[in-house]
Amino acid sequence: xxxxxxxxxxxxxxxxxxxxxxxxxxxxxxxxxxxxxxxxxxxxxxxxxxxxxxxxxxxxxxxxxxxxxxxxxxxxxxxxxxxxxxxxxxxxxxxxxxxxx
Amino acid sequence: xxxxxxxxxxxxxxxxxxxxxxxxxxxxxxxxxxxxxxxxxxxxxxxxxxxxxxxxxxxxxxxxxxxxxxxxxxxxxxxxxxxxxxxxxxxxxxxxxxxxxxxxxxxxxxxxxxxxxxxxxxxxxxxxxxxxxxxxxxxxxxxxxxxxxxxxxxxxxxxxxxxxxxxxxxxxxxxxxxxxxxxxxxxxxxxxxxxxxxxxxxxxxxxxxxxxxxxxxxxxxxxxxxxxxxxxxxxxxxxxxxxxxxxxxxxxxxxxxxxxxxxxxxxxxxxxxxxxxxxxxxxxxxxxxxxxxxxxxxxxxxxxxxxxxxxxxxxxxxxxxxxxxxxxxxxxxxxxxxxxxxxxxxxxxxxxxxxxxxxxxxxxxxxxxxxxxxxxxxxxxxxxxxxxxxxxxxxxxxxxxxxxxxxxxxxxxxxxxxxxxxxxxxxxxxxxxxxxxxxxxxxxxxxxxxxxxxxxxxxxxxxxxxxxxxxxxxxxxxxxxxxxxxxxxxxxxxxxxxxxxxxxxxxxxxxxxxxxxxxxxxxxxxxxxxxxxxxxxxxxxxxxxxxxxxxxxxxxxxxxxxxxxxxxxxxxxxxxxxxxxxxxxxxxxxxxxxxxxxxxxxxxxxxxxxxxxxxxxxxxxxxxxxxxxxxxxxxxxxxxxxxxxxxxxxxxxxxxxxxxxxxxxxxxxxxxxxxxxxxxxxxxxxx
Lengths: 101, 687
What we know:
By secondary structure, chain A is an alpha/beta fold. Chain A is 37% helix and 30% strand. Chain A has four helices and five strands; from the N terminus they run E-E-H-H-E-H-E-H-E. In chain B, strands 1, 2, 3, 4, 5, 6 and 7 form a seven-stranded antiparallel sheet that branches. Chain B has a five-stranded antiparallel sheet with strand order 12-21-20-17-18. Chain B has a five-stranded antiparallel sheet with strand order 13-14-15-16-19.
C-alpha cells in the first residue's frame, strides 16, 4: 500500500494505491501523519487504486475524518470502486463521508 | 535346431568313448592274456617235463628188467661154455624169464666151436604169429652176424648195450631192439654176445600212452636220430618240443605240444573274459545313453517352458501397463485411490481400473474365471469394454448391462466375470454402483470395517439379457471403500486354511485410515505373512478408494503478515468449486476480519500460536470454520456497534465483528476442548 499526497491549491489529495487490509492499515498508520497536519484544509481521499478495505482501513479513514472535523476541514472520498463502496454502505459510513467523482 | 546338432555331437562323443573303452579293454585283455600265457607256458613246461620224466622212468624200468634177466644169464653162459648144446636151454630159459623178451640168442665169435662151423648162434624165440617157441641156429652165410652192428658193438663193449631198432627178418620177424652183453671165457677174453630181443611194441605202448594234451604227441628216438616209436599223427602248426634222454639206453623221448593245444584253455577263458567285459561296457553305455536321452527330453521341455514363461512375462508387463497408476491431480484433493495386483501365474484373470471424468471417479474391479493366458485375454477385453462404455455413460447399471451383453454374445468357452463397478461423485462422496456377482467390498468407517451388504446381480458372460440394478451409497470424509478379488479372502496357507473374511475385515479396519497405497501394501504384507511359504493359488487384486472430502484447509501462525495467504486460498477454493467470483471480496473481508482479530488478540504477545481455517461446500452454502487455541473469547458477545450513534461517540472496536455478521448468513461460536471455534455459513445459491 502506497499513499501519494499532493496539493492542488488549498486542497490536499491523498491517493491510496493497493489493498487497505489489516496489514496495510498498520503500515500506513504513520504515513498519514502529514495529512493530519493539514487537517484544517480540505482533503480528498482518492480510492481509485484501492480494491479492498478492511475494518482497520475504515478506522484509518475515520481517524482522518475525526481529525479534520476537529480542525474545521472537510474530507471527501473520490473514485470509490463498487466493492469498497459496498463496505461503506454495509457499515453505513457512506452517510458520513461525502463522495465526489 | 541347436538340440539336433547337440545330439549329433553328443552321439559322436559317446561313440568315441565307447571306442576308447573298447581299446582300453583290448589292452587290458592283451596284458592279461600275455601274462597268463607266460604262466601257462611255464606250467606246460613243468607238466611236459614231469610227464617225460615219468615216461622215461617207465621205459628205463621196462628195459632195466630185460637187462637184469640177461645179466643173470651171463654167468650161466660163461659157466657152460664147454657145452654148445646147453646154449639152447639157456636161451630158452632167457625167453621164459620175461614175457617181454621175444627171443634170445647167444652168438659166438668166428670158429669158436670148430665142430659147429664158422657161425654159431643158437636162438630161441617166438616168431610173429606163432605161440610156440622155435629153437634154431641162426648163424650162417645168410645171416652173417659177424657183420651186424649189434654183434660188432657187443663184442667191443665192456658191458651191456642196446642196439638201434631194426627189422629182424631172421628170428622175431618184427621191429626189434636188442640188448647185447659180451661173454668172456675163463681167460677174460670176449668170445661172444648174448642178445635178447625186445619188440618195439613193448615200448610203443608206454610212449603212446602219453596224452598230455589232446593233440600232443610223444615219440621215441635213438640218440643218433633213428626213430623208434613214431606217433600215429603228426602235430600241425606251431609246436613246442620237449625232450628227455632215457638214461643209459641210447634213447630220447620227444614230446611235441601244438601251440593251439597249449593255449586253448587260456584262449577260451580270455575270449570269455573279453566278451563278458564287452557286454558290461555296452550295457553301461546303453543305460547311460537312455538316461541321457531322458535328460535331453527334459531339457527340451524345459526350454519350451522357458519360452512360454518368457512370453508370459511379456504378457504380464503388458497387463500391468493396462492398470491405472495415478489420478488426475485435481481429483487427488477429493479422493485417494490405489490399486494392487499380484497375479498367481504371471498373467492374471483379475482386473481393476479407475479414472476421473467430469468430477466423477469411475472404477471397477473384476475376476475372470480361470487363470493364465485365456483369463488374461478376456480380462483385457473386459477392461477395454469398461473404458469404452464408461466414456459416454455414467450409470453403472447400464454400463454393466452393455458389458454383459458384449461378453455373453461371443463366449463359446463360457468364461465368466464377476465385477463390481462404481461411479463416485467427487464433491459429494456419493457412489452409484452395480455388483455383478463380485465379492462385497469392505466399507471402513471410523475405524470399523463391514461388508457392503447389497444383493449382487448375476455375473457377466452368462445370460445376455440379464438385468443389472444400481445401488447408491455415500462416503463421508475419511471413509475407505476397499474392493478385492477372492485372492484376498481365499489366500491359502500350507495347512490349507483360508485367509477368510474375518482377517480381511480386521486388516481393512486396521489400515483403512492410511493413504491408499500404504493400506494396500500393509494388507498384502498381512496376506503374505499368513500364506507363508505356500504357493499363491489365485490372483490377488485390491482397489482402495479413500474419500478425503471437499474440505480445504489453511493454517496460519499468529503473525499479521500471514493474512496475505488468505486471498490465494480463497481464490483456489472458489475456483475449485466453481463459485461466483463476485462473492469473493466480501467473504475475503469477513474472514480477514476474523483472522486479524485472532492473530492480534487470541495469543499473548510474544507467544506463538496457530489459527486453522477450513472451508467446504455444503449444499449451496460455503461453510467456514476458524479455530484457535488462544484465550477463550466469544466475539459474538462483543457489544455491537451502534451505527446510528454519531461517529464521534462510537466505540472504535466492534466494527470488524459487525462486518462479519453483516456478510455471513450465520455465525456461531463454541469453545471445544480448549479451542475457540467460529463457524460461519454463507449461501452462494441465492446470490
